Amino acid sequence: MNIDLLIKMTNEIGDFFAGTAQPEEAARAVANHLKRYWEPRMRAQMLAYYEQRQGAGLSDLARSAVALLAAGASGPAAGAPLPAGPGSGAPPQGTKA
Amino acid sequence: MYAIDYEDFGTPAPVNGAATVTVEVDGRPVTVPDGTSVMRAAALAGVKVPKLCATDTLKAFGSCRLCLVEIEGRKGYPASCTTTVAAGMKIRTQSDKLLQLRRGVIDLYVSDHPLECASCPAQGHCELEDMAAAVGITGSSYTGGAMHRPMPKDESNPYFAFDPQLCIVCSRCVRACDEIQGTFALTIQGRGFGSKVAASQDQPFLDSECVSCGACIESCPTGALTEKSIIGLGQPERALDTTCAYCGVGCGFKAEVRGEGADVEVVRMTPDRAGKANHGHACIKGRFAWGYATHSDRVLKPMIRETIRDEWREVSWEEAIGYAASEIRRVQTKYGRDSVGGITSSRCTNEETFLVQKLVRAAFGNNNVDTCARVCHSPTGYGLKNTLGESAGTQAFDSVMNADVVMIIGANPTDGHPVFASQLKRRLRQGAKLIIADPREIALVRTPHIEADEHLQLKPGTNVALLNALAHVVVTEGLAREAYVAERCEPDSYAKWKAFVAEPRNSPEESESITGVPAERVRRAARLYARAGNGAIYYGLGVTEHSQGTTAVMGIANLAMATGNLGREGVGVSPLRGQNNVQGSCDMGSFPHEFSAYRHVSDPVVRGSFEEVWGVKLQAEPGLRIPNMFEAALDGTFKGMYVQGEDFVQSDPNTHHVSAAMASLEICIVQDLFLNEVAKFAHVFLPGSSFLEKDGTFTNAERRTSRVRKIIEPLAGYQDWEITCLLSEALGYPMRYGHAGEILEEIARLTPTFAGMSFEKIDRLGSVQWPCNDAAPEGTPTMHVGQFVRGKGKFWPTEYVPTSERVTSRFPLILTTGRILTQYNVGAQTRRTRNVIWHAEDVLEIHPHDAEMRGISDGDWVGLTSRAGETVLRAKVSEKIAPGVVYTTFHFPETNANVVTTENSDWATNCPEYKVTAVEVVLVNQKEAWQKRAEAERAAPLPARKRKPDRAPA
Q1: Are B284 and B835 in contact (CB under 8 A)?
Q2: B804 contacts A91? CB cut-off 8 A
Q3: CB contact under 8 A, A91 and B326
Q4: What is the pLDDT of residues B258-286, one digit of tens each?
Q5: What tens digit of pLDDT does each residue of B899-930 get?
Q6: Contacts of A44 in chain B (CB under 8 A)
Q7: What CATH number matches the domain at B303-376+582-765, 3.40.50.720, 3.40.190.10, 1.10.3210.10, 3.40.50.740?
C-alpha cells in the first residue's frame, strides 16, 4: 500500500489523540486504534517501514505508537490459507487454472 | 384522492386531548378526547357526516357547508368540522332540513361540476360523486349559468395533471401544501366565481415553487389533481404496505397495484398514514420516482466476460454463479485468503446486507467487508459509540415536535430528507427557534413563514472550530447543566473537556478568523441552544465528510451532554442518514472490524457466538475498508470483489484512482439493477431486484425497522438475498433460508439490539425501533433515558486540526459537494425517472464575485480542476454560496464531481473529505478527454441483452 498515505493516516490519528491525553497514554490510544481498525497487512507495512526507516515522516506521537505496536504485535500475512470448515469446499467446476 | 383502503375521520385528532367527553351522535353514545370535532366524534361513532372540504390530515376549514348538523339546545346548523364536542352534547346528523341544506349545496357544486363521472380519472374515488349520491343528487337543477369550462389542463408536471374543470375550490390542496408540506406554493386566486387554484404566481405547476410532494393530489376530493399513472393505467385494485427505498427517513408507503401474479403492476405509491416515520407524507422521490424499477435499462439476465474489455455474454444463472464462485476461489488460491472481499449496500435490506457480510466472513474466510456508510456516516458510528455508547441517533423523528431550539449542522433537510423537513417546518411554524451551521444558504435559512434565528455560515472544513467555540460559550458563561453532567457523565472526562474548551484560543473571537463566523453570532447561537429547554441537534454529511468528521461528531455529543440535551423527547443528537438503510447496513455488521450491533471481531465471546451458529472459524483481525481495498488492489494483494448494490466508482472520491484500482482486479462480481459505473470493471453481472421485488426490512435514521414487501415478482428471477445464497452455496458454504424472515430470525439470535425483532412483530406493530429486546420488547423511541448506553457519558477534547487540503494560488477556491431534492445519490435510480426534468445535469454553483473574476456567466461551461483531476460542467452563478466556495452535486456520471475530490479522509474511519477540495474554475469551450471517451462509450450499442419495455411511466 501507499506508505505515504499510511504515514498521513497515522499522523492524523495521532493529531486527535494528542489532544486527549498525556503523550504516553495518547501513544497507547493510537496504537490501539491501529490494532482495532487497521487490517493486518496495513499494520505489517507500517511496522516494516518503521523498522527500515525508523518511522521517518511520523510525528513523535505516531512514532511512539508504532513503536508500541512493534514491541507487541504483528498481524498474519495476507497470503494465509483458505478457511477451514464448510467454506473450504473444493472450487466448483469451471475453475480457471 | 386518498389511498384506496383509507378511512377518513374528517378532522385530525386533538393534540392535547387527555380528558374525554361523552356525546351522543344520532342516538349512539361515544366517548372522545376533549377538543375532538363533532365530525370526528361522529366518525368514531360510526356515523359518516357528509363533507367535502374536510379531511383528517388538515385542520378544519368550514367552507363547504355540507357537514352541517343539528345540536340539541343550539340554534342553527353548525358545521360539524369546526364545532368541538362538549360533554353531554346530543348531535343529529340526519334530518329533512339537513338533507335539504345539503342538497342545495351539492346542487350548486354540480351546476359547475357536472356528474360526468364515466370519463373522470377519479371514477369511483371521487368524494363529490359520493356526496351527490348520499344526498340523492344526480344532476343540477340550475341550467344555463356560467361554468368553469372549457379551461385548459395543466399537464406540465410529469407526474400529475391539474384539471381546473374538475376543481371545486375546496382549498384542500392549498392547505395541504401549507400545513403538510410547508411550501406554500398554492393559493386560491380571485374571488367568488372567479376563484381558482393557482400555483405560485398563476404559473404552470412545473415552473412554480411546487416541489411535487404530492400532498395536494392526495388531499384532492375530486379528479382535479390526479397522478398521470392513474390516468394512464386506471385505478388500482388493492394496496400493499412497504417502505420507501430512497433517503434515511424511511417513509411507509402503500404500493397500490392492479393485476394478478406475474402481471401485477404498480399504479401509484401513496404514503402510509400509519407510517410512524412519515405520517402519511411523502416527497417527489418516494411518491413518484419509482419508474426506474421497470426501466428498459434494467439488466435481467446474468452476464459474464473474461476481461473488462470484452463484450458481455448472457449466460444462465447457474453458469454465472458457478463462474463467479470459481473465480473467487481461483484468486484466493493464487493470492491468498485475504485477496478478496465484498461490499454491502445501504440500498439493500438488512437481511441482504447481513448475508453479504456473512458470505465474506464465513465463505470467503476473511473480514474484508465494508459498506457505503464508509463514505457517509462512518464517523457517526465511531463518534457516538465513544461518547454516548451507541452508534445511532438518539431520537424518533417525532421528537422534533417537542424541541424548543433546533440546530442543523451540515445538513439540508428540505433536499436530502424532505419529509422530515416538512415535520421540522411545522414545529418551526409553531415557534421553535432555528440555528443553521452551513457554508451554504440552504433553503431553511429563509423559507415561507420560517427564518433561521442564526445562520452560522462557516468556511468549509471548520466545523470542529465552530463546535469548540459554541462549547466555549456554554462553559464560560455558566450555561452548562452541571447537575445533569455530574449525574450522568464521567467527571474526569468532563473536567478535562471543560478546561480544554474554556481556553481562550477556543473562544468565538479567536475562532472567527478560522470559521469566518462573527463571534457575536456564535455567542448568540450558543446561548440560544443552551437555554433552549429542549435543544435538538440534527446533522448530516456536512459534519461527517471531513478529515475531522469523527471529531465533529464527538463535539456535537459533547455539546449535547454538557447542556443536558440527551435522554428525553425534544432533544438529542440525530444524524440524518443519506440512504434508506445506512443505519441498518451498519447495524448488520458491514464494517470490517465488527459484527452486528457494533461488536469488535476480536471479542472471542462475540466471535464464538457467530462461529457456533455459522459453523465456521472466523477471523479475529479487522478486514480492509473500501479505500484500503483500493490501495491493496493497486498494491497487487487484493484481486477480487463482490459488490451488491453499490456504485463506488461514481460515489467515492478520486475517481481516477478508484478506476485504476478496479481495473487491476481479476474478478469483480457486480449485483445490481443497471450496468452502472462499477459494472464497467465487472467480470460477472448478477441482475438484482428493486425494493418492489423483495421481502425484508430497512432501518431508518431513527433506528426504525420497517418491512419491505415483495409487491411484484423479481424481474430477473431472484431476490438479492437469494442470489447471495446461490453464490455462497457455489463457494461450498450453503446458506439456506426459506424466506427473508428466517434471516431476520438469525439476526435476532446473534444481535442483542435486534433480539426481539421478527417479521411477525414488525407486521403487528407496523415498525420497531431498536434496541428491541426483553428490556424493550416493543422497541426504543428515545435512547439514553436515565443513563447513557455506555454507562457514563464520555467527553472528548476535540482539538481543531485544519485539513491538509488548503487553497493555493493554483487552486484558490474550495469545492464542497451535496445533493438536491429530485436526484438521489449517484442517480442510478432517479436519472431513470422523469425527475431529470428538474435536474438534468450537475452544475457548479459559484458566487457572482468569483464568477466575474473569471469571466464566467450563468450557463457557461467551466472546467473544475483539483490536484486529483478535472471535469467540465455548467456554471450556475448564485449568491447562496459564499465567495471563495463553489458547490456541486454528484448525481451524474457525465460530469462526475468525484473526479476532482481527493484521497483525504477522516482520521478515525477513512470517510472521505468530500466537503473540502481546493479547486480552480476556468471558462472552457470543451469537455475533458475522459468525458468525451465516456460519451462515446455511452453512445455505443449496449451489450447484447434482453431489454424489457417500460411498464410504468418513468
Answers
A1: yes
A2: no
A3: yes
A4: 999 889 999 999 999 999 999 999 999 99
A5: 999 999 999 999 999 999 999 999 998 888 88
A6: none
A7: 3.40.50.740
